[in-house]
Amino acid sequence: MGKTVNDLILGALDSLSAEQLERFKRKLSERQEISYGLIEKESNVDITERIIRKFAIAHTAEVLRAIDLHDQAEDLEKEANARQGASSVAGMGDTGGRASEGRG
Predict the structure, then answer these.
(1) Cα distances (Å, whole numbers) of residue 29 to 32, 75, 85, 102
(2) What are the mean pLDDT values of the chain's consecutive 10-residue runs (104 residues total)?
(3) Residue 51: closest CA among 73, 69, 74, 25
(4) Closest CA relative to residue 84, chosen from 31, 46, 27, 29
C-alpha cells in the first residue's frame, strides 16, 4: 500500500532538526490557522493530525460552498470544531493547559 497524506506529512516533520521544527511551528502559527500555543509541545504525530483536520475540513467546506451547499459546509465546520474542542479539553492535563484554537 502506498503512503497516505498522514505518512507524508509525518515523514516531512520527522526529517526536520529541532531548530527546523521550531521554525516550522512558528511559520504555521503565523498563518493564524493554528495557534503556536496549541502545537508548541505537541509531538509530530499530533501536529500532523491537527494539520490534516484543520486544512482538510476547511478545504472541504470551501468546495461545498462553491457548489452552493452552505448549510452542509457549516454543519461540517461545526462538527469539526466541536470534536476539536473536546480533544483540546481532554489533552489539557498533560500540556499545562492550552488555549483553545480561535479564528483569526
Answers:
(1) 5, 25, 18, 11
(2) 87 95 91 86 94 87 92 89 63 37 40
(3) 25
(4) 46
Q: Which amino acid appears at position 100 of this protein?
A: S
What residues does each domain of the chain span? Answer: 5-94
The CA–CA distances, whole Å, from 47 to 58, 62, 71, 76 equal: 16, 22, 29, 21
- CATH class (in words) of the domain with range 5-94: mainly alpha
Distance CA 80, CA 16 (A): 29
Quote the CA–CA distance of 73 and 60 in Å, as a whole number: 8
Polymer length in residues for the chain: 104
DSSP 8-state assignment for residue 70:
H
Amino acid residing at 67: I
**HSE toward the beta carbon, residue 34, CA cutoff 13 A:** 22
Identify the CA nearest to 104 among candidates 29, 55, 33, 38: 33
pTM: 0.64
